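Give me the 3D structure for FAS1 domain-containing protein.
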Amino acid sequence: MLTKKNPTMAGLVLAGAATLVLAGCSMGGSTETADESMAPSMAPSTAPSSEAMEGDDAEAMDPAYANLVGAACAMYDEEVPDGAGSIVGMSQDPVAVAASNNPMLTQLVAAVSGELNPEVNLVDTLNGDEFTVFAPVDEAFAALPAETVEMLQSPEDADALTSVLTYHVVPGQIAPDMIAGTHTTVQGEDIMVEGEGDDLMVGGASVLCGGVQTANATVYLVDAVLMPPSMG
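Predicted structure for FAS1 domain-containing protein (232 residues):
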């Protein structure tokens, strides 16, 4: 089981029908172990991303900031400026550990660590190689229909959750300036990334903050859970 080390604010809210309890984490209308009022919203911010920073400020910046894109990056950096969940802190841990320290990824962490479905635990896999990860924020999981959540948490249908999660992962680390195009996911089907800079789209989802480094992965926080075409 993955152990979360939340930063100073507590944070991978199901709209509508049912409350889903995940070993102390809720994917329903509330989250029992996370104070969502304390977690930073990933709504676009008018603050500049690191891409807009020039001169001495950019040169003095930690390498973890070098490739950030997305309107929400500056806001997140302001809300979580230090600690294990900060941009610099995440760069020092393998991706599953880094995600567990990010207050916006509590539901994704539950999904990959066996809390959502006891038959699915991808922590060792994600920490064991280099990947590009499209990471849905908590609000993305909140938008899933109740019947979809019920399917993904069913031990009898563990392959469905595994398929969805691995569809968010591409082998190798891909920087924002190379991410546009078609990529074959770990799940086996292709995913399309369009746009550039702060305006990237992944399979119809918007990149809120991308180019986030971990010790073994490049992460793009997205605003929707992506479904493989074969499950459409």
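Residues 38 and 180 are 33 Å apart (CA to CA). Let me know if you want a second pass.
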